[in-house]
Amino acid sequence: MAGGGSFISFPAMLAIGVPPIQANATNTVALWPGQLTSVWALRTDLRRDLLAVVLTASVLGGVGGAVVLLRTPQITFMHMVPWLLLTASVLFGISGPVSRWLRRRSDQPHVPARPRYSSSFS
Length: 122
Fold this sequence. Notes:
By secondary structure, this protein is mainly alpha-helical. It is built from four helices and no strands.
């Protein structure tokens, strides 16, 4: 559901001199329509059980991010930005292979494991 627009818009705002916390907040608000559109486009793919997980993760991530933004000085947040972008880039990069692996794994029929019998004679 992620498009990666933040990888362009956030550094662009920093480059024109917007302070990092304000750039992050502006970026988040600006990308909301795209996020809602993505969810709408994928609505048939979201099962009810998956929707609950996605909503929970979104709320926890949003609240956690807001707390970090409200309680972190600009300079500290600026030092965190490269690590946050690196983490986001890695997650974004591995999301395709992980999704394919999970899809292949869920498509395989479940075969219960055979019980192991002891071969020792006592």
